[in-house]
Amino acid sequence: MSDHPSNDDHVLPDGGEVPRETISIPSEVELPRLLDFYELQDAEHTQIHEFYENLRDGRFTTTECRECGELHFPPRIVCPECTSDDLEYVDLPHEGEMYSFTEVRGTSAIGMNEDTPFVAGVVDLGQIRLSARVDDASYEDLEIGSEVRLKIVEIDGPTDQDRVFYRFTPV
Amino acid sequence: MPQNAAIVGGGTTEWGARDATWKDLAQEAGKATFDDVDGIEPDDVEGLFVGAVQPERFAFQSHVAPLTAELLGINANKMIARTELACASGQAALRYAWLAIAAGQLDVALVLGVEKMNLGQEYMPEMQSNMTNVLDREFDGVNGLNGPSHFAQFAQRHMHEHGTTREQLAMVSAKNKNHAAETDFAQYRKKVDVDDVLDSYPIAPPLNLLDCSGITDGATGLLLVSEEKADEIGAETAAYITGSGQSCMAGNSINNLPSMTTWPQAREASQEAYEQAGIDDPLRDIDVAEVHDCFSISEIIEYEQLGFCEPGEGGQFVEDGRSQLDGDVAVNPRGGLLGCGHPLGATGVSQALEVYRQFAGAVPSARAVAGDPETGLIHNLSGSGSVHSVMTLARDPQ
């Protein structure tokens, strides 16, 4: 009744077959650098490169506003209190106390799922509180108020940059 | 004088791990919505508001509001927008639609929340990366802090500061999941008791697996119209928006959260909504509350911040049964995020639709709020808890 070809009829009206060809896409796609959680830390990529340079040198620092005196964390390029961009890097304590924490036991993000279980929490450094991973401890080893100290991790990853980040470890 | 705006119906897909694409979900929810409302067709819609958080990551698709217009045959000739406010995106879409109608810019809006999230266990790290990116990726996400591990710390601090018990957390989960057992689209429809929650895997201690909402595919829509249009189509039931408040602190990163036991922005947002709605005593004046129980601890803090009880007493509030269907305020009769799952962009839309359905008496009797409810509230938090959105609804116009 219909002039349309049936579903199993692959023959064109002119009698030829519908042309077909296999095309290939890569069987694996490399993890793009953008999907790892560490920023490119040099002056060509971020204006807070001094934070990372200091950390690489063993100093834990953040910005403080020369105009209004506000201490920031994370480091900024503009003061969120007064919008001044006259900021300087100042040293933060290397020791603090656990304010809160948990242990990541379920699936975690790309690039860190292999690390589970791991402890993550909030560390109170006095002037600021910050989120951080705590190495060398399980959930049961810690209490609110447990003392921890700074640890620097060097990132061996998919760029040739010498990237670093901070974590903490029990005192 | 702003125009009144009312929800006059809506519909939903089934929620859960769906064999469906983002576009499938949008179409299913759109059809369910138009099927539910007599007198409004796609051609009548002037504004389209789509709540969607991460279609770019989960479905590799952006510009999703116009795509939805195409799928549903809508010429949104007055306003079109996608809203992204993480877990509050659905309520944000509803709020924009309400503002547009209140301002007299349009009379008929479709509000649709759509999220495709559950890509299967193989891609769970991708999913967790996306959730982690809701915080400050450079300084929080890098530490592996996602939903469960972030809210676990609120639970730990609340237990530490206020003596809230593990059992009280479990009571929230059991209550909501038992409601969800009666909700036909919910992701989790199995009844559980407090011991089941306590015995479930401690996925981010002190939170267990059953203290957590799900990774959910789902879409829900509703039609929001001016009072004049509601009268014109002869809507039998309407849920009028009577107040809407929102508050965001100057902070999103965990590094700048002043408290991990209170949400002052939830208090501010709710007070703003109560003032607009003329609500003096929320416990007396609100019959049904759909609050953001992304984790059991969240609902306990919300009792306190929404003014249902004093700070620190949220655990006792649930233990005393005051948030049960026949309690002082029925909280999460739909089953909450804990029971229904949490397709981010759809959640707030679904909460509002639940309030409408409770007003209409269109829910199974096993989870119907006692005493013919006439007033309702929806609440969403987003991100680290730095933003809160609260909307009040009533069966009659103000």
From TrEMBL, chain A:
Gene3D superfamilies assigned: 6.10.30.10
Compositionally biased spans, kind Basic and acidic residues: 1-20
Domain (ChsH2 rubredoxin-like zinc ribbon): residue spans on this chain: 55-88
Region span, Disordered: 1-21
Domain ChsH2 C-terminal OB-fold intervals: 89-151
Alphabetized SUPFAM superfamilies for the sequence: Nucleic acid-binding proteins
Protein name as catalogued: Zn-ribbon domain-containing OB-fold protein
Organism listed in the record: Haloferax chudinovii
From TrEMBL, chain B:
Domain of life of the source: Archaea
Thiolase C-terminal domain span: 252-394
Ranges of residues in domain Thiolase N-terminal: 6-228
InterPro entries according to UniProt: Thiolase, Thiolase-like, Thiolase_C_2, Thiolase_N
Alphabetized Pfam families for the sequence: Thiolase_C_1 (PF22691), Thiolase_N (PF00108)
Gene Ontology biological-process entries: isoprenoid biosynthetic process
Signal peptide positions on this chain: none
Record's keyword annotation contains NAD: no
Keywords carried by this UniProt record: Isoprene biosynthesis
Protein name as annotated: Beta-ketoacyl synthase N-terminal-like domain-containing protein
The species this protein was found in: Haloferax chudinovii
